[in-house]
Amino acid sequence: MSVPMAMSSGNVPIGIQFVGRYGDEAAILGLAKQVEEAEPWIGRRPAVCAG
User: Fold this and answer.
1) How many domains does the chain have?
2) CA within 13 Å, CB half, 14
3) Coil, strand or helix: which one is 36?
4) Is 31 among the domain residues?
5) InterPro entries recorded for this chain (predicted)?
6) Most C-beta atoms within 10 A of its C-beta, which of 4, 10, 12, 21?
7) 8 A C-beta contact, residue 3 and residue 32
């Protein structure tokens, strides 16, 4: 799973990839949930955005 973690100085999202054990998607989804709760991305948009 690729999850946004920060913004560059040029206002471009920087992501990190989480990899887990085969069949253990729940662990990766749980980790992504914790990251989103700690640093919400709902209001962040790069300078050039399709939406």
Assistant:
1) 1
2) 7
3) helix
4) yes
5) AS_sf (IPR036928)
6) 4
7) yes
